[in-house]
Amino acid sequence: MAVRVVKTGYALAFLCMIAGMVYFFAANWPEMGREVKVGISIGMMAAFYIASAALWGRRRFLGRWMLISGVLSFGIALALLGQIYNSHADSYWLFLVWLAPTALLALLTKERVLSVIAIGLLQLACWFYYFPSAYRIEWTEWSSFGVLSLFVIINGVLFIFVRTPLIACLVYLAMQGWLLVMDITGFSYGRDAWWPYVYAVLLAVLLYYFLVIAKQRLYVLLTSLFAGLFLFIQYIRLLADHYGTWLLLIGLVAAVAVLYGGVVLLRRTGLFSAKTKAGKWFLAAFQAIVTLAASALAIQSLLGLYFLWTESWSPYMLFFISIFGFVVPASLGRHWNAVVRYTLLAVGYGLGVAMAGEVSRLALFLYAIGLAIGVIRASDSGVRRLTTAALTVYFGIALSSAMDDGRTVLLTLALVNGGLYAYGRFRGTPFLTPLVLAFGALGIATSADVFAADGLYVALNIVMVLALAFFLFRGRQLERKTAWVYTALYLVLKYYEFAWNLLHKSISLLAAGVALLAWTLWLEKRNGFTWAKGVRWGRRVSLWTLIVVIAQFSFLGYTVWQKERLLRYGDVVKLELEPVDPRSMLQGDYIQLRYDISTIPSLDGSGRVQVGLRKGADGVHRLAGVYMVNGNKRPGYTPQPGDVIITGTFHGPQVVYGIESYFIPEKTGMTRQENVRFAYVRVSESGDALLEAIRAE
Fold first, then answer.
1. Tens digits of per-residue pLDDT, 161-184?
2. Sequence-distant (≥ 6) Cβ neighbours of residue 171 within 8 angstroms
3. What is the pLDDT of residues 427-439, one digit of tens each?
4. Per-residue pLDDT at 20
5. Closest alpha carbon to 119 in 155, 156, 149, 83
6. Is residue 665's pLDDT more than 80?
7. What is the 8-class DSSP label of residue 618?
8. Alpha-carbon span 607 to 97, nearest angstrom
9. Which comes out higher in pLDDT, residue 588 or 426?
10. What is the model's pLDDT at position 122?
């Protein structure tokens, strides 16, 4: 117990301090100069790496967390440079540059957490390349297909060559995710005429390979999940185009086919045996996937038929059909196939929820009481999970109709689920669903974005923190994992609240991190905990690790030198603009800028472009002509004395110059938007641009 508590304390302390540094810099404190900000971020990074090198051989757990913190602080420093010099918010370049040393250090040190971070950074780089936050790209059909295919191929190649099971699973998930994005975006690009057939064949091949040849049940589960999503998306698309009774009946047949196929698969293959703990987990997961796919199709089809025949059907009729036609038979059929039972329950609960707003409050309360009895008496874990979720939803709807205060509703739901969990634990048959739902309801109730930041808000946050701390330090294994997930979600929720500004949150988190660190050190000393020594790196690994770390510092130093040189020697250009006000993930608030030179109708295709700017009588620089496109001079424009050549990247008529974001202190965006009309930009001889200031004149 002492070892676990000490390790948890250290991990929480480092996470709090890293989060505090992110919040501190995201606040964009105007009183702090560029040199001080850069010095703090680089100094923090150096401290973590030095501490990691010193501790790795003697106290490996601390050494590895120091290394992880160093990698995270490099990303913070990159984001800070983007904020200081107004580079793209959440730019794919930020995550790509962050990815390179992270992946190398993961390979060198064999540290699994770094590998997970690297995979996450790869997906973020891909995401923000295709969906940039600071500007908009009008992808053509084939350029979109090519880019998304590249993302799929990159993750597919990693899946083939990676040997770590966790990393292989993550990149396979990413590959399937990008395939699904291709399917969804195909609606707007015209690929929906042929791509779904290709995707369906690919899913069938992968499912056959993992089921029959490789016999890897984890990938059978993942492939089945995405196959179910694909099937449901295609069904919704067909309904949008051909809504009618015949298609809805086909949907019901498809639901039955999915259910039957899942049952046959479970009976005829040995992949999902329940004889081992892992086998039970895989069996439950596969049952959940089949239930989700079949019930989604069935609910959508039955609701569609109801709305087509609504003149002869009443809400009460469908509500009672959902209970006595699906829920009651599934509850009584204890010897039925588990997948059939779960699917019938899911269909019944789903239909009932769809009609819950049309039936009386008394009927909902009585139904909720019956479901609570069902949870207590159920012996099947799947039935208990489904019924607990249904109880929460129905009881929440009933309470919402009786109470005006949403926070009271959430608190009541949290208490009910907490009571169910405590009852199960007292009887020796605990299951996590009520705990998960209780934490979820309580977490929403602690949000100042939804409810008032009053005394009750403070009290609820204290209760949430104490509950998380209890399960983190005193809970069982699954309870600790649940608490870890909600701890991360809780910190993210606090990030976006407005009760305090980012600077106050930063100071609070840093203080909490220091307090946790001091408490953990005291607890370690008190218990006389002896650390197991880690394996020292070989000379070659140490040398290459040092080279990677030096390269990180060199890149940061060169970037600062380059930006400062451009600020000092670049030509000043005044541009007219139109701002909006979003927020960056790591860099805080910024104003998104759009210029009159951001759209050039004569451009087509994609690549690099050099644009000539000419100063007008009012001092504003405007488009004089396109000088070069992908290294080739364009006819019709000859630079004149005083013209400034600026370089950008174009996709069709849209041009991105790298000056589309201007970072500002928190909550000052609206004021800046109302008072700014011009941007002052420094442009180097090579055409690189750096946004220096935005002003009203």
1. 998 899 999 999 999 999 999 988
2. 119, 155, 156, 158, 159, 162
3. 777 778 888 899 9
4. 80
5. 155
6. no
7. T
8. 21
9. 426
10. 96
The DSSP 8-state label assigned to residue 532 in this structure reads: P
Angle, CA of 527, 70 and 58, to the nearest 5°: 40
Answer yes or no: are the C-beta atoms of 73 and 19 closer than 8 Å.
no
pLDDT of residue 581 exceeding 60: no
CA 176 to chain CA centroid, nearest Å: 16
**41-85, pLDDT tens digit by residue?**
888 889 888 988 887 766 777 788 888 889 988 988 888 888 778
Res. 586 pLDDT band, cuts 50 70 90: low
- Give rounded-to-5 percent helix, strand, coil for the chain: 70, 10, 20
Distances (CA, A) of 549 to 58, 165, 417: 21, 27, 49
The total of other beta-carbon atoms located within 10 Å of residue 452's CB is 10
Q: Which residue, 373, 362, 464, 488, is CA-closest to 410?
A: 464
- To which H or E segment does residue 583 belong? strand 583-584
- Provide the edge-to-edge strand list for the sheet that holds 621-629: 632-633, 621-629, 606-615, 644-651, 654-656
Distance between CA atoms of 539 and 544, rounded to whole angstroms? 9
- Cβ distance 293 to 258 under 8 Å? yes
Give the predicted TM-score (pTM) of the model.
0.77
Q: Enumerate residues 6+ apart whose C-beta is below 8 A from 521.
A: none
Give me the phi and psi of 15, to 5 degrees please: -65, -40
User: In the beta sheet, which residues pair with residue 17?
Assistant: none
The CB density around residue 484, as the number of other CB atoms within 10 Å, is: 17
Strand-pairing partners, residue 632, are 629
Contacts of 585 (CB under 8 A, 6+ apart): 90
Query: In whole angstroms, how far apart are CA 354 and each of 221, 306, 357, 437, 508?
Result: 29, 11, 7, 20, 44
pLDDT at residue number 499: 43
- Assess contact for 575 and 65: CB atoms under 8 A: no
Beta strand residue intervals within 162-255, DSSP E: none
